[in-house]
Design goal:
Order of helices and strands: HHHHHHHHH
CATH architecture of the largest domain: Orthogonal Bundle
Distance between the termini: 57 Å
Shape: globular
Structural class: mainly alpha
CATH superfamily of the largest domain: Tetracycline Repressor, domain 2
Radius of gyration: 20 Å
CATH topology of the largest domain: Tetracycline Repressor, domain 2
Length: about 210
Amino acid sequence: MGPTNRREREKEALRLQILDAARELFARDGFEAVTMRAIAERIEYSPRTIYLHFADKEDLVRELCRHDFLGLGADLAKAGRVKDPIERIKTIGLAYAKFGLANPNHYRLMFMSDSLDYEGKGEETWKGNPEVDAYAFLLATAQEAITKGLLAIKDAELAAQTLWAGVHGVISLHLAKGTDPWVEWRPIAKRVKTMVEVLVEGSANPSRKGR
């Protein structure tokens, strides 16, 4: 590996380190309270180093949006290989939960924070594209299931939002209260699977198995 390639790898590694620190601080303290200096201190670099990678805090947030939401979209897109739309919805739910549990800081900032507004941060370049937009992919799959008569719910937006809300509830409850000794928690994988099965089978057309 030549010096140029090594420098590029080191630059990208530092860029990801900055994003990780910013994501953690935004999720913990809120967008307004976090400064570029605080992010620099978190990774033990000077603020000048941060500005070599990002013009300002808005630029950094824009990159967080691109990185995190497109990462989720890529994970869920793998579910597109499942031919049956009902089974694909289940796979989407499980993949979504896996992403949230594996990336708790990502998930808190993306879906559990109201202090950070992603709107207008570049999402228009992928919004509505099922190949990269996780919600658009779920919506398209729900519509396919409805068209084929496999879902009892006939409104694709309602079906997608209901399914999303159920799985989100399991993940957010786990992240917020999963270590609370007051409750005798069942394994999170079992809770996720149960929620997905209940939601999808409860929404499915009972006559679909005879098709």
